């Protein structure tokens, strides 16, 4: 009996967004446009240095995979998410936030461990680019213990966050999840997550992909870096070796899709972007919702581009719950 439409796995992070200038990034020694792993002391130092820049954004449980699964849940999918939080206030908040979004999680998430729930400091520059400094905390210990085989094998799709490649136990959990999903006939999807993950952990990502996933999500830079090519056409050709279909997001230019037989180019609504944090996560969540509801690739891509455009036009990596139904009403 099918219980879930989408089972996801990824890091559990509490996000803090701060508006900064390019000069601030330079002064702080932060590399622009990528995710950088930092320790707790470095993250606290950055927060202290930028106290005057804090913007009024509400707390929400984050992490790339969580953003995707929560979006899919708000669109209407039955969802489940494996992650790891600590027995601190942030961990309690994270569990409550998942529940409020309609996302189920394994019993292991209720057993509070020591340590610190992961945190992500997101620095937003005037060009809307996001530069992330992430302290994984207890998320770095995410392992096969956090998997729920019953929930996984009764799902239609399994979604793997590529950021897990930076954790030895997280990478093993992702590989195990993919293998179990494929054995059970559950379709698999994976996101390459970030150009830095591709650059420094490319081999690990290939291990996570194994013989190939059903759906691969990436942006242009990740596609080029992962395939070692210098053109979008060449990257699109090379990605076929790793998946049965893919979506390459192209920012304001929309997305390039491949359904296993044909390529499609879908356009993005033109909006004033102020914060690109979460755009790729939202694209994946909307796309996975659409194909779970048997929409074609073009229709799925158009919904995903609309959703991502909405995200970048406001602060924060996710939309309000009611915005998802508004997006669906506009395309159905």
Automatic annotation (TrEMBL):
PROSITE patterns: PFKB_KINASES_2. Pfam families: PfkB (PF00294). InterPro entries: Carb_kinase_PfkB-like, Carboh/pur_kinase_PfkB_CS, PfkB_dom, Ribokinase-like. One of its GO terms (molecular function) is kinase activity. Residues 51-320 form the Carbohydrate kinase PfkB domain. SUPFAM superfamilies: Ribokinase-like. Keywords: Kinase, Transferase. Belongs to the carbohydrate kinase PfkB family. This is Adenosine kinase.
């Amino acid at each position: 009996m099918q219980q879930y439409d989408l089972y996801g796995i990824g890091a559990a992070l509490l996000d803090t967004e701060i508006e900064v200038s390019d000069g601030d990034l330079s002064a702080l020694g932060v590399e622009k446009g990528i995710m950088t792993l930092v320790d707790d002391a470095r993250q606290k130092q950055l927060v202290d240095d930028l106290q005057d820049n804090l913007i009024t954004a509400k707390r929400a449980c984050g992490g790339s995979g969580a953003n995707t699964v929560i979006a899919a849940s708000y669109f209407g999918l039955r969802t489940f998410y494996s992650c790891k939080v600590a027995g601190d206030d942030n961990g309690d908040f994270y569990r409550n936030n998942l529940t409020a979004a309609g996302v189920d999680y394994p019993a292991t998430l209720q057993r509070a461990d020591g340590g610190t729930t992961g945190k992500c400091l997101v620095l937003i520059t005037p060009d809307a680019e996001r530069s992330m400094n992430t302290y994984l905390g207890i998320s770095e210990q995410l392992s096969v213990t956090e998997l729920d085989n019953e929930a996984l094998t009764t799902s239609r799709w399994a979604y793997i966050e590529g950021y897990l490649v930076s954790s030895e136990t997280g990478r093993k959990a992702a590989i195990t999840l993919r293998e179990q999903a494929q054995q059970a006939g559950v379709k698999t999807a994976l996101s390459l997550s970030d150009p830095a993950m591709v650059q420094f952990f490319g081999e690990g990502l290939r291990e996570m992909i194994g013989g190939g996933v059903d759906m691969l999500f990436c942006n242009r830079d990740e596609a080029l870096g992962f395939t070692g090519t210098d053109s979008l056409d060449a990257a699109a050709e090379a990605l076929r070796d790793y998946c049965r279909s893919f979506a390459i997001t192209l920012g304001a230019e929309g997305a390039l899709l491949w359904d296993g037989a044909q390529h499609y180019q879908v356009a993005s609504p033109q909006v004033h972007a102020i914060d690109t944090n979460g755009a790729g996560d939202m694209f994946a969540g909307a796309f996975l919702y659409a194909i779970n509801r048997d929409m074609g690739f073009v229709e799925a891509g158009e919904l995903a581009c609309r959703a991502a455009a909405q995200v970048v036009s406001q602060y924060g990596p996710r939309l309000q719950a009611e915005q998802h139904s508004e997006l669906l009403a506009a395309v159905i």
